[in-house]
Amino acid sequence: MIINSILRPGAERSARRPRAFTLVEVLITVAILACGIIPLLTMLSEQHRGTADIVNKVIAANYAKDVVDYLKSLPYSDVDSKYNGVEIGGKEESEFFAKLPKLVAPFTRKVEIIERRDRPLSPATPEKIDYKIIKVTMTFDKNDFRPVNGITLFGTLMMDKIKKQQP
Amino acid sequence: MLLEKIKKHNGVTFVVVIGILTVLLIAIISYNSMLRSERVIMYHMIYGDNALIIAECAMEVLQKVVEYEFAKTGYERKDTYFKYDDLIKPKPEFNTVAFDSAKLTNLISSSEPVKEIITIFGGPGIARVSKVEVVIDKKLVRFYEDVCPQSPEIKHNSREKFGIITYRVEVEYFNIKKTLSVAKQIRIINILPKALRFFSMFIKNVPAATDLNTILTDKDGKIVSGKALVFDNGDYNKESSPLNCGAIFLGNNPASKQMTLRLSHGKAKPGFGEQFQLFDGFYVNEEYKKTYPSSLFHIGHLEYGFCKEIENETKYGIRTPAEAKSSMLKIYGTPENPTPTRIHGNIFRCYLRLAAYQDIKTNGSEYMSEMPFVVPADFTNNGIKPIAEKDETPIQLHSCEWIAKKLFPSDLSGIDLYRLYAHYMNQPIDFEPYNYGMCNPIKDKNDQPCDPNKIPDFAQKMFPTGTNNFGGQPTKPVDEEFSGSDMRRMTIDDNYVVPYASYKFKDDSEMPRFKEMFVEKSGSDELLRLGLIAEFDEGVTLPKLTVEKGGMIICKKGDIRLSGDIIQDPVQNQTLAIVALDGNITVDASRVDAILISMKDGSKFTPSRPLELNGTLAVNTMDFAKLSSTGGKIDFNTAQSSPLSMPHFYYASIQPDVRNWKVDK
Q1: Same structural domain for residues B543 and B476?
Q2: Which member of A18, B150, B470, B567 has the lowest number of beta carbons within 10 Å of its beta carbon?
Q3: CA B349 – CA B166 distance, rounded (Å)
Q4: ipTM field
């Protein structure tokens, strides 16, 4: 029979009554497919949003590092509140921000220098320290390519010498 | 029905549908999984980056803490995180120095800046500093004695070394652990020969024609115009450092010739002269009897000598400077800060002050004056006689114990009596055995006494080890580096010092660069933050500086001139040594808080105006004529010799990352 079907492929088919798929069969098949694919596509979409979010965070972190790297290259005494400010990607930049790699939309960069003086090094030690925290807040808005809003906080430390506790 | 159809169609449709579905499913799941993995990887990257940023901050704090520990003086150091003694151990004993990781971890993780950074990154629930380590691995340490040439007179200090200090900070961020390591070069060096730290003045060659005694009076005892060179050699009577008194070395030229040094107080400044230290008794100097046969007897200390000026007197006591032909080289403190002085050298010492005396004229026969509060110029010599039994003829020599029993209740004895007497005399009798060791007749190999230019067992004589019966803590041996027997040969060897120099400058023309690197303006002050050895190839003029971080400035060939005051920051209390390896030092300043060294043969120290030196003056010779016209004061810096501060002089420096280190070889 196998040999026969190979040698005469039309003979057996012609012997049967040809029948098409019924609508019901097609609908059932589509339904099964839909039941499987829709949740997957939904999940895929979520993953895509998540990926976009993390990509934004990576970009935001790099923008923040540009600020930190620049400020940490300056002498401790030079870093002060004059560097505080907000930069919105794609818009006109201040003198300080112009020194940094260009920020593109939809990112926004906020720089804040927090200065602490005569703070205890730790609760258990009498020594005092002066230090500065460079805090960078990066935000990014939703748009066609970046379908999520987000905020990333970034900070680093500049520290002056430890001071002896005066008697 | 479907099954039937499947049967009828041999299941092809079903298989196709399920197959497509499966393929789609697998594709979507794979894509989804890929996205998820990618996202996880990116989150790991971000979290890891954040962990490293926190670790960097913690590392900055950690390095500051360790540097701060290194910069502490011996007095301040509490060995909180590591034992400084471990760091300076000599080669055979040195082992890996591991800092207390638990303490450091606790300190860093609880430090305010690190906590603040962690808050920015999400708070302590997300991020934490989990481990901090600082290690100086023995395998990464080398000793200078293995790499530097040896000189004949100075043997290597086996404690000096250089190597790598490794900092490690481990941070956890969302369970992602990141470890940041930083390795830096560390050097543990002795910034100057230890022997010099015990001296307030060390003059290798006092010219033969120089009479130190003429600084205030001439040879006939007449007061001449001039100023005294005043020494304040330490705080022996303070509990913190009872043995903290400076020594003076006067090397004769030629060494064989004996120098006579008359020590007393003069009119120029209220104070009192060198304490006459009483031990077990006095003696009659037979040689002196031959020279001055008319004298009935002579009181002098068994080891110190006797008073030359009493040759025609049958009584002993205090007299005015002019009468006594005294007040020359003034070696004394102030009433508030009295000081005994050890003087080494081939020196014959003369005394004008005795241990106790009666001032009949002023106070009646029974009154015993307290020496420490005597103002010299107020005395006359009439009616003053030594302690003696009433009507004792001839006056006998008596021990200090005998004198003490006359002064204090007779039922007192032993240590109580000695302590009272010590208080009365204001001298360190508690520690007498060690001072006594200092004052023993020191004989050379030819059995000739009093030639301390050659002291084979100098260290043992000066600072014996152990604890004495009176509870005194002697200092450590004077100097493990000086191996010669003739102190006049002690010097600073170029080969010994130059390799330690971290920065080199040409001459004065590079002073702006020096200032740029090590000097910071603070109002009108210029703060010197050296912390290492800087070398000038040729002559240099140092301006007015406030020493916040000590170290050493050396001039390889040429003169050093101090054009302004060198003031030590009282808070930092760090020592600066200024060394002319082959040149003179000229001081045109009124105050210098430093160790000045110019030891090369032919070099000279010259003060241009009255100088107040707080530290040590170690020179080949000095311009005594200039000195006699300017005068001055040398205060021994007690921190230099205290046993507690010994490690302070081993300067553990963490080297800067960018260096200009050259060694001419």
Answers
A1: no
A2: A18
A3: 55
A4: 0.78
